[in-house]
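To close the chapter, one final illustration. This time we ask the reader to focus less on the individual chains and more on the assembly as a whole: which components sit near each other, and how the overall shape emerges from the parts.
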Amino acid sequence: MKISDRRNFLKNAFIGTAGLAAFPVVLSANELDMASPSPRININSLKNSNVILFQGDSITDAGRNREAKDPHNQAALGGGYAFLAAADLLNTFPAKNLQIYNKGISGNKVFQLAERWQNDCLDLRPAVLSILIGVNDYWHKHNGNYDGTVAIYEKDFRALLKRTKEALPDTKIVICEPFAVLGCKAVDGTWFPEFDQYRVAARKLAGEFNTIFIPYHDIFVKASRVAPPTYWTADGVHPSVAGAKLMSEAWMKYVFGK
Amino acid sequence: MKISDRRNFLKNAFIGTAGLAAFPVVLSANELDMASPSPRININSLKNSNVILFQGDSITDAGRNREAKDPHNQAALGGGYAFLAAADLLNTFPAKNLQIYNKGISGNKVFQLAERWQNDCLDLRPAVLSILIGVNDYWHKHNGNYDGTVAIYEKDFRALLKRTKEALPDTKIVICEPFAVLGCKAVDGTWFPEFDQYRVAARKLAGEFNTIFIPYHDIFVKASRVAPPTYWTADGVHPSVAGAKLMSEAWMKYVFGK
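The assembled structure is written out below.
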């Protein structure tokens, strides 16, 4: 079996070589296609120097330097899936000179995105806006530090998306499914089935607003069949380096079909 | 042309789809094959939990946290090509549970690697050792802060490789070509042809010790035909995010044929 056949699970799922029979696959092509809305974004529809914006909580933030202004600066992009996706985009499409921003802030819930949306999203006029939000909306409720509900999450997220569509009608939106991986430090059985309601709400909104949807929860669950859950995320919420790469590969696949 | 045809220049160079005619390719398959020693490393030859070590100067260091001990921690891996290659390796070969270390230190010349080689290389017993060293051996001489010569670089580097082979006969070694990109802030015509002698010395040592050799200088020069040199490296020495990804993709291709 050639190394090149093993490129990564997501690509393997699409390439589907005979060699893969010898190697576990996280997602089958069918599973991906069923979960993935179409059409994806055609890179040719993006103009030179278009902005791509990653928004969310600590998973997106990933230790970024909030003082760094250069969108092509690693410190500004953090050390997680947004940086890994940015590196892939900048290397793959150099002629586009994409301007890529990470504005994730650790601990954020959806209402906190709304509070900073004018500065941290609308003013940047992104051509592509990727949002990963929701785990704190549940987690902080679960640990008794927040009295929000899934109904509030859905209502606030819907209002944020409506506001975005009105201000930026041409912006292509990507909704990333909130995820929580059982068998890791911070996530136990008490999270379910209630946490699943937040996943359902995010998927429902992707349908309502006709956005791309990335089923990250399913992706982590399936990756955990190949290596232990803690290989992909130590606490069940924050991805490891391997988990961040799993996320960036899925992002490229679901958003650009790459 | 499908986005997937454009994956990245290095892969495109190997895939060679018809679609590529519409898209510039940095390296042709022939150029890569001619520059690339064989055989590459077969991932199946690595044992579970084997160590992969990236050694070098600031290009490898890339702002890593030297206090971080967890080899699967982004802060410990820095924000450059070593982190990007680690993320790719950990996601692509999860069953191997590879232990990946970055021990690059900003400003280092080859004699400074030798001073810390026992702790920062030999004691880690890497299965794969990747070394990128040499730009400071020239740069610090060029700016008058070092009186070393290319002969000293070659002599010190040969002694380091001999010492490594004696202590770790089974370790697979990768020598990365030092590079300097004209048309960027820190690199002008006064660097050449003298800097090229350091590139020649590194390539000569790769031949003497039968190591893998990655021709990074050529890779950056060819990438600069597709986007301006400063897109890949602001100062001609330190890669941008796009340049770091160019390096990690080349590393995976030359080391694992991936």
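Chain A touches chain B through 47 residues (CB under 8 Å). Residues 150-167 of chain A form the longest helix (18 residues). With these observations in hand, you are ready for the problems at the end of the chapter.
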